[in-house]
Amino acid sequence: MKGIVVKAYNSYYYVQAENGREVPCRLRGKFKKGRFSLLVGDHVVFQDVPEDGSGVIEEILPRRNCLIRPPVANVDQVVLVFAATNPAPSPVLIDRFLVLCEHAGFSPLLCFNKVDEPDIEQDLQPLYDLYARQVGYRVFTLSAQSGYGLEALMECLQGRITAFAGPSGVGKSTLLNRLYPGFSLETGGLSRKISRGRHTTRFAMLLPLEDQSGYVVDTPGFSQTEFAQIGERELESCFPELQPYIGQCRFNGCLHLAEPDCAVKQAVEDGAIAVCRYESYQQIIGQIREAKKGY
Ligand code: GDP
Ligand code: ZN
């Protein structure tokens, strides 16, 4: 039978079978020899052990991608959470998170939480226009506190494995608790910091949606941005709106910085690419170079 690993605990892997049944499974001995590690999110083939209702994992199907922290395989999309206010959203920070998602192959959904706070609507409009209209991401405005906008987000979770990510304090845990009322992550304050220490070291869990059509990772993913894994030549591929101009520059391998006759810089000048996005691109190239120098 085929299934997906939703939880790992006490040397059992809990596999949700295609028929919805959750089966505690052990790994066949042959997998334990190498340095291989089975992750939550992995698709496996297992055999029932009728005597005690458990199973044995016989085969691990190819993995499409994996998130390191928390360790989860086959993530389809990342809900990037920012706050409309407190902390105020910074386009540079948003771009840094978007780049990490794009580079890891997770399609990002961008959320602005806390829209229940007074006096924020005006500030969000330019961000919405930039990311939704100009760049083409899906952007949601919502309030984990009041429930506003959650249904639209829920619809996008159907049939997929979704992880949440974003800086701290934006409401990721509140949002997860809201989506899964049965589940409680501590939010805010000192207790949160303590629980987080433990949280990041343990395995993540996949929470099945009510209709079993998709899963959400219970532990928020990257909360900081680090670019050591990204090559400077790869960066252009992490900006969707740069794609029409790639290969149009005078020089092969143009990094779109100081090179003459650069199609990307021309597009920025013409207003087809937002100046702030191009500035983020330049800034991140700088950070990639610093990371490589070993700072
Ligand atoms: P995390 O660090 O991203 O997991 O953020 P938390 O979920 O711990 O939330 C940080 C703070 O923001 C807490 O004090 C929450 O009560 C508050 N918060 C979360 N969601 C909302 C919201 O929709 N509206 C408002 N006004 N506050 C929120
Ligand atoms: Zn160029």
In a nutshell, what does this entry contain?
With 295 residues, the chain is an alpha/beta fold. The chain has helices spanning 30-33, 91-104, 121-135, 150-157, 172-179, 189-201, 263-269, 275-293, and strands at 2-9, 12-17, 22-27, 43-49, 54-60, 66-67, 72-73, 77-83, 107-113, 138-141, 161-165, 206-208, 215-217. The strands form three sheets. The protein has a six-stranded mixed beta sheet, sandwiched between helices. A five-stranded mixed beta barrel has the order 1-2-3-5-4.
Question: What can you tell me about this protein's structure?
Answer:
There is one protein chain. The N and C termini lie far apart (49 Å). The chain contains eight helices and 13 strands. Strands 10-9-8-11-13-12 form a six-stranded mixed β-sheet, with helices on both faces. It has helices at residues 30-33, 91-104, 121-135, 150-157, 172-179, 189-201, 263-269, 275-293; strands at 2-9, 12-17, 22-27, 43-49, 54-60, 66-67, 72-73, 77-83, 107-113, 138-141, 161-165, 206-208, 215-217. It is an alpha/beta fold and 295 residues long.
Mean residue pLDDT? 88
Strand and helix order: EEEHEEEEEHEHEHEHHEEHH
Class by SSE composition: alpha/beta
DSSP helical segment count: 8
Based on CA atoms alone, the radius of gyration comes out at: 21 Å
Please give the number of β-strands. 13
Instruction: Indicate the proportion of strand residues.
Output: 15-25%
Biggest sheet features: 6 strands, mixed
User: Which ligands occur here?
Assistant: guanosine-5'-diphosphate, zinc ion
Principal-axis shape equals globular
Distance between the termini: 49 Å
Biggest sheet strand order reads 10-9-8-11-13-12
User: Could you name the ranges where pLDDT drops below 50 across 5 or more consecutive residues?
Assistant: 188-201
Helix content: 25-40%
